[in-house]
């Protein structure tokens, strides 16, 4: 059974974009009650007509639905009293002092981790193409190759020779390849072969560095993470380092693959990471004369999505160009935008940005609270 503490822990992933701290810390969570698998939470906003209201409500619902014992979520919204607003402001100020830049990733950046239970299902190919398709919608996009020693993103984005340099503050500046802000161990170490030397490195430590020591642009709307396969250290570290991270699970149509993928989803739930949805990759092959072959089985994506209670974001067909384009640094969504694989990828990217809309750069948890506080002071001094 879910309990108050679990709900609270999950809601620590709902962050005030401006303050970079969570709604629990800000004292906005006022109550939690359960009716079987239905949870009702009361959230106090600084003012009832908060422009961020929808975003906060949606984020709360997504976080809580990610919990294994919760099917339904009701959010009751109220407005804070004056004392509550002052308390919130002092907590916010304290937080701003204490936790200057825990990671360099802006709290306004939406983080999408592309994960799978097993290797070779197409995470890296999908990460690159989703990043480009999200960028084509007009967002600034970063791509973090979190596959520390199995990196493949630089080649896929045609950035093999690129080397990252340190900028001001001795922070590493992401490289820009095809409009995407890119960081990968492949851009730091000398050759793909020396990657083996990184095996001894603590992977979670490397991820931490990529989040702390990289000057990710503050204007990034989305950061896509290409995760290594499985459910290791890196996945757990991600949840700890970037509480706003959400997961897209990749699977093949094969029914057996779905059980493996479910393990990643289970890990995501234990670390309160919402699952945006499932993408089925390698979903059949259609020949030029229209004959269709389900080379890797059928139905796995639907089944996994149903099991997890999340949407199936897309089914990406097998397309030889994905391999060729990946090898040559010409990703299918931009190089062959009308192909079935590109169309499916672009549609999946659209679903992702609908479900995880860009964070709005306005807030009613701090700026408006401050305004309200000032108005009250003015009124009091009159
Ligand atoms: N839809 C597709 N059609 C054809 N080939 C594909 C498709 N998706 C991926 N591939 C190919 O499958 C291989 C594995 O893909 P990719 O490297 O993206 O998987 P991965 O999950 O990142 O693997 P790893 O777990 O090793 O990191 C690559 O050769 C890639 O080009
Ligand atoms: Mg990969």
Assembly status: single chain
Shape: globular
List unreliable stretches of 5+ residues: none
DSSP strand content: 15-25%
CATH-level-2 architecture of the largest domain: 3-Layer(aba) Sandwich
- Termini distance? 53 Å
The H-and-E topology, N to C, reads as HEEEEHEHEHEHEEEEHEHEHEEEHEHHHH
Bound compounds, each kind once, are: adenosine-5'-triphosphate, magnesium ion
Provide a descriptive summary of the structure in words.
This protein is α/β, with parallel strands linked by helices and 382 residues long. The protein folds into two domains: 4-100, GMP Synthetase, Chain A, domain 3, CATH 3.30.300.130; 110-355, P-loop containing nucleotide triphosphate hydrolases (Rossmann fold, 3-Layer(aba) Sandwich). The chain contains 13 helices and 17 strands. It has helices at 4-11, 53-65, 82-98, 123-136, 153-156, 203-212, 233-241, 255-270, 300-308, 320-328, 332-335, 340-355, 367-381, and strands at 15-16, 21-22, 29-35, 38-45, 72-79, 110-115, 141-145, 165-166, 172-173, 175-177, 180-183, 222-226, 245-251, 275-281, 285-286, 292-293, 312-316. The strands form five sheets. An eight-stranded mixed β-sheet has the order 10-11-7-12-6-13-14-17, with helices on both faces. It has a three-stranded mixed β-sheet with strand order 3-4-5, covered by helices on one side. β4 (38-45), α2 (53-65) and β5 form a beta-alpha-beta unit. The chain binds adenosine-5'-triphosphate (ATP) and magnesium ion. Adenosine-5'-triphosphate is lined by residues 116, 119-125, 147, 150, 152, 229, 281-282, 316, 318-319, 322-323, 326, 341.
């Amino acid at each position: 059974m879910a309990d108050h503490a679990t709900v609270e822990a999950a809601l620590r992933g709902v962050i005030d974009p401006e303050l970079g701290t969570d709604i629990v810390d800000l004292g906005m969570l006022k109550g939690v009650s359960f009716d079987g698998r239905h949870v009702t939470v009361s959230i106090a906003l600084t003012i009832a007509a908060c422009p961020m209201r929808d975003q906060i409500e949606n984020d709360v619902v997504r976080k809580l639905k990610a919990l294994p014992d919760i099917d339904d979520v009701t959010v009751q919204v109220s407005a804070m009293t004056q004392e509550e607003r002052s308390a919130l402001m002092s907590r916010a100020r304290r937080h701003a002092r204490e936790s200057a830049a825990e990671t360099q990733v802006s709290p306004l950046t939406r983080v999408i981790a592309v994960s799978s239970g097993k290797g070779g299902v197409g995470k890296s190919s999908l990460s690159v193409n989703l990043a480009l398709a999200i960028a084509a919608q007009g967002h600034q996009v970063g791509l973090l190759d979190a596959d520390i020693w199995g990196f493949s993103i630089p080649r896929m984005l045609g950035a093999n020779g690129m080397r990252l340099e340190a900028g001001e503050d001795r922070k590493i500046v992401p490289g820009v390849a095809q409009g995407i802000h890119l960081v990968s161990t492949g851009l730091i170490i000398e050759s793909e072969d020396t990657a083996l030397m990184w095996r001894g490195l603590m992977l979670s430590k490397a991820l931490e560095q990529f989040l702390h020591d990289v000057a990710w642009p503050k204007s990034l709307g989305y950061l896509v993470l290409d995760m290594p396969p499985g459910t290791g250290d890196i996945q757990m570290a991600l949840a700890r380092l970037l509480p706003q991270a959400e997961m897209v699970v990749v699977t093949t149509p094969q029914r057996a693959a779905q059980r493996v993928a479910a393990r990643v989803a289970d890990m995501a739930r234990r670390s309160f990471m919402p699952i945006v949805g499932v993408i089925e990759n390698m979903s059949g092959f259609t020949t030029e004369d229209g004959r269709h072959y389900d080379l890797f089985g059928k139905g796995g994506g639907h089944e996994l999505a149903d099991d997890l209670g999340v949407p199936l974001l897309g089914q990406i067909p097998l397309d030889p160009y994905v391999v060729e384009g990946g090898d040559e640094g010409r990703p299918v969504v931009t190089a062959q935008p009308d192909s079935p694989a590109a169309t499916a990828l672009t549609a999946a990217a659209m679903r992702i940005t609908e479900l995880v809309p860009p964070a709005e750069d306005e807030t009613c948890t701090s700026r408006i609270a401050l305004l309200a506080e000032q108005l009250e002071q003015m009124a009091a001094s009159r």
